[in-house]
Amino acid sequence: MKRQDLEKCGLPDTPGVYFFRDTEGNILYIGKATSLRDRVRSYFNPDLMKSRGLRLVSMVTAAHTVTHQITESVLEALLLESKLIKDNVPPYNAKEKDNRSFTCVVITKEEFPRVLVMRTREYEKRFTKKDTLAVYGPFASLTQLRDAMKIIRRMFPYRDKCEVNQGKPCFNAQLKLCPGVCYGAVTKEEYKRHISNIQKLFEGKKTELKKDLEKQMKEYAKKHAFEKAAQVRNTLFALDHIKDISLIKDDEIVSFKDSAFRIEGYDVAHISGTDRVGVMTVIEGKEKMTDEYRKFKLPERTNDDYAGLREIMLRRFGHKEWRYPDLIVIDGGVGHKQTAEKILAGLGLLIPIVSVVKDERHKPKDILGAALHVDNHKKEILLVNSEAHRFAIGYHKVLRNRLV
Predict the structure, then answer these.
(1) Are residues 272 and 371 in the same domain?
(2) Which H/E stretch holds residue 385?
(3) What pTM, to 2 d.p., does this model score?
């Protein structure tokens, strides 16, 4: 995708969530913005691409168009982005889904639930699913999430640390950030409404939330509980006038560091076309991701490595739930590289490919491909290629020995 293609996307100067999509409309990446138009334009700044690395270039190159969803506030964009990433698992956001250093919001399953902000790894240590009413996230920025929770807590006060009926107001209750769970100022039913309101906000149900609040306001008015009716009215006003511009910074494209650069290596092993197998190995940053290695048992046929490579790639890219690589490494010469490029072109994918050429002793003697990729990732290219060869030979031997 090129900068001039943005004119067709009709991106407005408003808060919202944007979607980079491939030629088939599949979502590659989801992001949030204070200004959809300005944020998406920033992806096409040459200096930004250089500073963020090859993974950003790979994502933008693979994209065919950008769509968007407008929100009424940046807060809603922040919450909606997290929900959509969790629901869709886009390949270029997949790192966020599994990164336990990111943060989440936990609502505990108690008589008076607590609302907690914590690291994902901390949540996994402290809680099980049966202990929680809901978990939202992950969120990449702890600072942004804390700022968002300050806004939410002013509208819907909640308990986090205080004990139920401890006898005196906690510090947050004195600031009107806790509804008074600590000293019996709120009933179980009233507090349940607070929690339900927070859940609706996180789940993108703002219209439903406002209807519920309007209903609550009328109920309080009928009962002549005018002070509580006024509190609900003020919450409704706050929902429509959220001051949240500071939640999303202009330099917030954080998902494309080269530490998350994904390289996949493919290789085929067989003896005269029998016991044919293919494999995929993965390097992210400089680490082997062995739990993401994959084996492919291939149809028996003649000694045709091109056909084997095609089988591996079609089956691999049939799994759209797997994060796409930023670079592909294959074993072979010009013909193998051209075959792989044609396969990707047929799938509508623009992922760079390099091939490792071997000598008569099957040792690497050259790497074919763009100097940009070879110079920046030579060690990783050779490592993922070596791993693919080792993994393929090992799998082939297992199948061969079964027949002995």
Answers:
(1) yes
(2) helix 371-402
(3) 0.64
383 plus 265 within the same structural domain: yes
Residues 52 and 119 in one domain: no
Phi, psi of 106 (to 5 degrees): -115, 130
**CATH (domain of 17):** 3.40.1440.10
Which of 150, 173, 192 is the last residue in one of the domains? Answer: 192
* H-helix segments, 168-268: 171-174, 188-202, 206-222, 226-240
Q: Among 171-185, 243-257, 304-318, 319-333, where is mean pLDDT lowest?
A: 243-257
Judgement on whether residues 120 and 70 belong to the same structural domain of the protein:
no
Mean pLDDT of the 306-325 span: 88
pLDDT at 67: 96
What CATH code is carried by the domain that includes residue 270? 3.30.420.340
Residue 389 forms part of a structural domain: yes
Q: What is the pLDDT of residue 290?
A: 92
DSSP 148-192: HHHHHHHHS--BSSPPTT-SS--HHHHTTSS-SGGGT-S-HHHHH
Q: Which two three-digit tokens encode residue 245?
A: 């511009």
When pLDDT is cut at 50, 70 and 90, the band that residue 51 belongs to is low
Tell me which of 33, 56, 74 is where a domain ends: 74
Q: Number of folded domains in the chain?
A: 3
Judge whether residue 371 has pLDDT over 90. no
The reported pLDDT for the residue numbered 403 is: 52
What sign has the CA pseudo-torsion 299, 335, 23, 33?
A: positive
- Enclosing domain of residue 393: 261-402
Tokens at 110, concatenated:
């108690």
Q: Reply yes or no on whether the pLDDT at 196 is more than 90.
A: yes
Rounded CA separation 67/60 (Å): 13
Query: Are the beta carbons of 279 and 391 closer than 8 angstroms?
Result: yes
370: number of Cβ within 10 Å: 13
In this predicted model, which residue has the larger pLDDT, 256 or 237?
237
